[in-house]
Design brief:
The chain is mainly α. The chain is built from ten helices and no strands. Helix 2 runs antiparallel to helix 4.
Length: 197
């Protein structure tokens, strides 16, 4: 691993550490998403505590964090596994942000942004899976869990050389969702429409 690769990985973590949910809620005079709703500073909880416009802004920014770092690394010819490390670094920054006491979100939107440079066909399939599960179940967390579980398989089918880094990132996101999975199994997980939690 070269010095340039290490620098890019470090930059990915720092960019990931910029928590758009906290910043945008502050701009809109909304409550800190870490203290309201599910306590998760991500787009879904921002929708609950601040409304649609802030949630959309958070979603877009969080996706762009992953896309910008991985796309930039791709264009300087990093190997697939190194691209996976960049993607993991930006998601780790989102999950454990340096600038916000290491209290971050679940990393789903940022991970999706990291998947985008692989191809629009993969991105479209992931969106279809996520929206289908969300529409059927009403659970944002379940949609995320199913989507990241299928992501390595879909990647292997479309661009097999990126299946391993995608699997690495998927395992991180699944690990972060372990509490959601337990609540889903117990029937205690809130649905996305439950905005008064």
């Amino acid at each position: 691993m070269t010095g340039l690769t290490i620098l890019i990985i470090a930059c990915a973590y720092l960019l990931g550490s910029v928590s758009s949910a906290i910043i945008i809620c502050h701009i809109f005079n909304a409550p800190d998403p870490r203290t309201q709703g599910s306590g998760n500073p991500g787009a879904t909880n921002v929708l609950r505590v601040a409304g649609k416009i802030p949630a959309i802004l958070v979603l877009v920014f969080d996706v762009l964090k992953g896309t910008v770092m991985v796309w930039g690394a791709y264009f300087i010819n990093l190997a697939p596994v190194e691209l996976g490390l960049v993607a993991i670094a930006v998601c780790l920054g989102h999950i454990f942000p340096l600038f916000f006491n290491f209290s971050g979100g679940k990393g789903v939107a940022t991970a999706f942004g990291a998947f985008l440079p692989i191809g629009l066909d993969l991105s479209a399939l992931l969106i279809i899976v996520w929206l289908s599960i969300l529409f059927i179940s009403g659970y944002s967390s379940l949609a995320a869990i199913v989507t990241v579980t299928l992501a390595p398989l879909l990647t292997w089918y479309i661009k097999a050389e990126y299946a391993l880094p995608v699997a690495m990132l998927s395992l991180l996101i699944l690990f972060k969702h372990r509490s959601n999975l337990i609540r889903l199994l117990k029937g205690q997980e809130p649905k996305i429409k439950d905005r008064n939690l």
